[in-house]
Design brief:
With 221 residues, this protein is mostly helical. It has two domains: 71 residues, Homeodomain-like (Arc Repressor Mutant, subunit A); 129 residues, Tetracycline Repressor, domain 2 (Orthogonal Bundle). 76% of the residues lie in helices and 0% in strands. It contains eleven helices and no strands. The mean pLDDT is 83. InterPro entries: Homeodomain-like_sf, HTH-type_TetR-like_transc_reg, HTH_TetR, Tet_transcr_reg_TetR-rel_C_sf.
Length: 221
């Protein structure tokens, strides 16, 4: 049941954002079906008829609850931002990853990569929908940037500055070290879960390789 925790998170958030406060049984089925098909096929390639069939309701039932397919999408994406992405970029992520007193940048990276690996693995369908659509909604894009800048960036900079002061990292600008670290980690996660999900992955080994690769490129001579 743990792997479906993200469904409960989004449904609970959707209920909090609903004017009626409690989603009906049919609405729950519609949201669950939409999450599954949007994640698999993408928003633009999904029809409301497909969602209705998956949910076991008439297509007209969808439009009684959501005026358009986009409104249904936003009923999923907006709670995703508030209940999944925001904690990921704010309090939860910072508390879990940036709070401990690390002895090395490598130790910090091991915690960072494993934390994000498990986060993505447990919420992949809803994150796929969010990533597919966030680029097309400027307000969501801006909110993500603001959250990262306000919460994660500050703490990440402290980590980089700390290990540069200890001569463990090459003297590149903090922004560059953060960018190189993040793009490598995200590249691993996207390849692992989206581009080549059916590859015969040894996840423990790949996590270790990813950490070693970053450290090798950033380690001071």
């Amino acid at each position: 049941m743990e792997e479906h925790k993200w469904v409960e998170e989004i449904i609970n958030a959707a209920e909090q954002n609903s004017s009626s406060s409690k989603l009906s049984e049919k609405q729950l089925k519609i949201v669950e079906a939409a999450i599954e098909i949007f994640a698999e096929k993408g928003y633009s390639n999904t029809s409301t008829n497909e969602i209705a069939k998956k949910a076991g309701v008439a297509e007209g039932t969808i439009f009684r609850h959501y005026k358009t397919k986009k409104e249904l999408l936003l009923a999923i994406v907006t709670p995703t931002l508030t209940k999944v992405i925001a904690p990921f970029l704010a309090k939860d992520f910072v508390k879990e990853v940036f709070a401990p007193d690390y002895k090395s940048y490598e130790e910090f990276l091991e915690v960072l990569v494993r934390n994000r690996y498990h986060f993505v693995k447990s919420r992949l369908p809803i994150l796929k929908i969010f990533l597919q659509e966030v680029a097309f909604h400027n307000e969501l894009n801006k909110e993500i940037k603001d959250l990262f800048t306000k919460h994660v960036y500050v703490e990440f900079t402290k980590i980089v500055d700390h290990f540069q002061a200890k001569n463990q990292l090459i003297p590149l600008p903090s922004d560059t070290v953060i960018r190189l670290t993040i793009t490598t980690v995200i590249g691993f996660l996207i390849t692992r879960f989206i581009i080549l999900p059916d590859y015969d992955w040894d996840d423990e080994q790949e996590i270790a390789y990813t950490v070693k690769y970053i450290v090798a490129g950033l380690k001071a001579n």
